[in-house]
From TrEMBL:
One of its GO terms (molecular function) is sequence-specific DNA binding. Transmembrane segments: none annotated. Pfam families: DUF6597, HTH_18. The keyword DNA-binding applies. SMART domains: HTH_ARAC. It comes from Kocuria varians (Micrococcus varians). This is HTH araC/xylS-type domain-containing protein. Keywords: DNA-binding, Transcription, Transcription regulation. InterPro entries: AraC_XylS_family_regulators, DUF6597, Homeodomain-like_sf, HTH_AraC. Residues 157-259 form the HTH araC/xylS-type domain.
């Protein structure tokens, strides 16, 4: 089922604090090689209020269209925060690696960056649909734009999609050796695909999935000891987990668990 491919709880550390309408939608069959899923967000905050949205993003490019224009965001090194105020909306596509050449030949150059993309006609069409209450329908307009520019995919692009999918979703893939075997290439082959299509290393992809899953597990199982959490996710000890988690989120797993009880 398509819905099973859209992990609504991962990547958002504090989903219950979202004062916004946030959804993830599966891509259509036409865009299935290009878009992992769509994420749609709308907000309407009272004057003087703001919402700090914390995200540990999936290791990929995101293409967005909002009231200000279009942009492509590269993969991130750590969790990031976007501050929302007033009223607004955004349509985002978590891009599969095969779509990367539409925007860049060097995805690593986009790491931790948001680059505007000047597309006035696309932005105007999407804005019109959103204004008519068709936020979901606007994804089809963006789909057609992406499909028209991606063209026929190379075999290497499809291999990169497979690598990314396995690294970010398959719980049985826990090492570069198992990932290379599943993709049908060498470890050096994985790194070549990652450099061309992702912008972060295959190891970083595996680590990002683990950190997202650790946060989700702590959130869903607050009574579980952190030592048990570390063991569950294959870390040598709790101290190891603390270091990796803090490097990504800026707080330790214990501090994260405590903060979940806050307002």
């Amino acid at each position: 089922m398509a819905e099973a491919t859209v992990p609504n709880g991962r990547g958002v550390p504090f989903p219950r604090r979202l004062p916004v309408a946030f959804r993830r939608l599966p891509a259509s069959s036409e865009a299935s090689d290009l878009v992992a899923w769509w994420w749609l967000c709308e907000w309407d905050l009272p004057d003087g209020e703001r919402s700090d949205q914390r995200v540990l993003a999936f290791p990929a490019l995101n293409f967005t269209v909002d009231g200000e224009g279009a942009a492509v965001a590269g993969p991130t090194s750590t969790a990031t925060t976007r501050i929302l105020t007033g009223r607004g909306w955004v349509i985002g596509a978590l891009l599969k690696p095969a779509t990367t050449p539409v925007f860049t030949t060097d995805p690593a150059s986009l790491r931790d960056r948001l680059n505007p993309v000047v597309l006035p006609e696309l932005q105007a069409r999407v804005t019109e649909l959103v204004g008519n209450g068709c936020l979901d329908g606007a994804t089809e307009v963006v789909t057609q734009w992406l499909v028209g520019r991606a063209g026929d995919l190379e075999d290497s692009a499809r291999a990169a999609n497979l690598m990314w999918h396995l690294a970010t979703t398959d719980h049985h893939i826990t090492s570069l050796t198992s990932l290379a075997e599943a993709v049908g290439t060498s470890q050096s082959g994985l790194y070549r695909l990652a450099r061309r299509y992702v912008g972060v290393s295959p190891y970083d992809m595996l680590r990002r999935r683990r950190l997202q899953e650790i946060a989700e597990h702590i959130r869903d199982n607050p009574q579980t000891s952190l030592a048990d959490v570390a063991g569950r996710f294959g870390l040598t000890d709790q101290a190891h987990m603390n270091r990796e988690f803090k490097a990504a989120f800026g707080i330790t797993p214990g501090e994260y668990r405590t903060s979940l009880r806050g307002p």
